[in-house]
Design goal:
alpha+beta, Immunoglobulin-like, 2 domains, 7 helices, 32 strands
Length: about 550
């Protein structure tokens, strides 16, 4: 026993010694972080737009102590400093240098360029604010040099090319034949457009990051019995696109959807689509009920217009991100299925690349799961029970024999490579001519908000002409519909959900992909089931 006791004692002393060293090291690290230092700042402005001539530019520094971004006081700056350039802007370049002493404790520094409101949404100076983290390397070299170079936020892809691509990959939409609310258009609400404000939920991160207490919404009248024509909204951009506030150094919640910039990169492009529904009723009778619904999907295509990946969203999640070969398409038009709900509800309109399956959803907690038991129920490609809304360029003859399934004969390989537990029946060919319910009557390009109706600067088409019926929607930041925030009414056993954020620069999680390149296999799983691939295809799967 004694040797063991002695060994235990020695181990205990060693552990204590290591803890002392660790604490000492931690204290030294903390002292390095909290020690005030003098910092040299050098800022340059390049390619300043002519609209800023005569404006006074200033630089606002905000220091944050935020070792844990979920901390209660994380977003309260520990110091705010401002430096104004004595000279007004007179040319396309400008610069300023100054010294500043940092506060005692800080982890993040935001540097915001101010006085450029005239060109907000038209010209981007890059990340604004520009973020710095307090690291060991920064302490050793406390000099901050940064160039704010303005670039036009115009889309450099010609309108004709955007429209050709958007038309080429417009969807074939599959619905249950008893689906109550089919996609329509927002133009019919143009005469009723009036922006209002509502109070943001207490947990909204913008309250902490931006000090924002309210947000905007538009309340529409109930016009669901008129203006039923289906329009499809699209935006084509280069895949290499950046949004301010998305850098790894930035604190969460500072994403600025009005400040973004495009780069050609390797020429890959992302086509984003939005499908408008007047009403969301589901996925059960309990909720989520709200006016307005924007569902979306995106395609990653090569510079020569060949499809590479497809990405679908819904329920504030990326539901699927996969190779274009893993879904069914007809002449490049992806076949997409829109779910109904259960318990007789019309559903929340999520879109899937596969039909004939269900996903059980989380209703928030076990009690609501029991009471409402929400499901997404996706229709099959079935002439007896389903209907189609198709692109205008497809004819009835094109739908004579529609391939459903991968077409890959070796099912063993398919199952080995894919988590396809609910693999559908073998590949079949369906005469879908009698399934046609309506057509997508119009494709509407979503213009860059800051350039709506203005003459172009860099745009190859030389203009930014927009239909007056949609111009207000293009420029609006906020929610579309009379239910701007979630409201649980126990007595009614109803959940009134949030109306959707306006496209295409939405701030909710669902739409973050619109400024990322779809490139990795992703699918979302819920309470029971998932939206992932139901088969893996090959080059022969897309139907020509």
């Amino acid at each position: 026993m004694k040797p063991i006791t002695k060994m235990t004692t020695n181990l205990s002393l060693a552990v204590i010694f290591l803890l002392i060293i660790s604490c000492s090291s931690s204290e030294r690290k903390d002292s390095e972080i909290t020690k005030p230092i003098s910092v040299s700042f050098q800022f340059k402005l390049k390619a300043i737009p002519k609209e800023l001539k005569g404006e006074s530019i200033s630089y606002r520094l905000k220091f944050y102590f935020c070792p844990n971004t979920s901390g209660k006081d994380c977003y309260t700056p520990v110091a705010i400093l401002s430096h104004k350039n004595a000279k007004k802007i007179q040319s396309s370049t400008d610069q300023i240098s100054f010294q500043e002493v940092t506060p005692n404790q800080w982890t993040h520094l935001s540097i915001r360029l101010e006085g450029i409101e005239k060109v907000y949404g038209k010209y981007s100076p890059g990340h604004n604010p520009f973020w710095i983290q307090n690291t060991d390397s920064f302490s050793k070299n406390p000099n901050i040099t940064h160039e704010f170079t303005f670039v036009s936020q115009e889309n450099l892809i010609p309108n004709r090319k955007q429209e050709e691509l958007a038309s080429k990959f417009a969807p074939i939409l599959v619905f249950h034949k008893d689906k109550k609310y089919l996609p329509t258009n927002i133009e019919k609400y143009a005469d009723y457009f009036q922006s209002k404000e509502y109070t943001l939920p207490i947990k909204d991160i913008r309250r902490k990051s931006l000090g924002q207490t309210t947000w905007n919404y538009v309340e529409f009248p109930d016009l669901r019995e008129s203006g039923k024509q289906t329009h499809l909204y699209y935006h084509v951009r280069y895949a290499k696109t950046t949004v301010s506030g998305t850098g790894k150094e930035a604190l969460p919640g500072f994403r600025d959807n009005g400040n973004y910039w495009y780069e050609v990169g390797n020429g890959d492009m992302v086509i984003s689509y939005w499908i408008w529904y007047d009403w969301n009723e589901g996925p059960t009778k309990f909720g989520n009920i709200h006016q307005g619904d924007l569902e979306s999907y995106a395609l990653l295509v090569s510079k020569d217009g060949k499809p590479k990946r497809i990405l679908l969203t819904g329920h504030d999640h990326i539901l699927l991100d996969t190779d274009f070969k893993n879904i069914n398409s007809l002449k490049n038009h992806p076949i997409l299925y829109v779910a109904t709900g259960n318990m007789g509800s019309d559903g929340g309109n999520p879109t899937s690349a596969y039909g004939g399956y269900t996903v059980k959803l989380h209703a928030g907690n076990a009690l609501f799961n029991y009471i409402s038991d929400p499901w997404d129920v996706f229709p099959s490609f079935d002439p007896e029970n389903s209907i189609l809304i198709i692109p205008k360029d497809l004819t009835e003859k094109d739908l004579t024999s529609v391939k459903i399934g991968s077409g890959v004969r070796d099912k063993t390989t398919t199952l080995d490579d894919c988590d396809c537990k609910d693999l559908p029946e073998p590949t079949r060919y369906v005469d879908a001519r009698k399934m046609i319910k309506a057509r997508i009557e119009r494709l509407v390009s979503w213009e860059e908000p800051g350039w709506v109706g203005q003459p172009a600067d860099k745009d190859p088409d030389g203009h930014h002409k927009v239909d007056p019926k949609v111009s207000a929607f293009f420029q609006f930041q906020g929610r579309l519909g009379k239910h701007p925030r979630s409201d649980l009414r126990i007595r009614e056993l109803h959940q009134y959900g949030e109306s959707p954020e306006n496209a295409p620069f939405k701030t909710n999680i669902e739409q973050h992909y619109t400024f990322e390149s779809p490139k990795t296999e992703r699918s979302y799983s819920d309470r029971e089931g998932n939206y992932g691939p139901k088969f893996l295809g090959d080059d022969s799967t897309p139907q020509k």
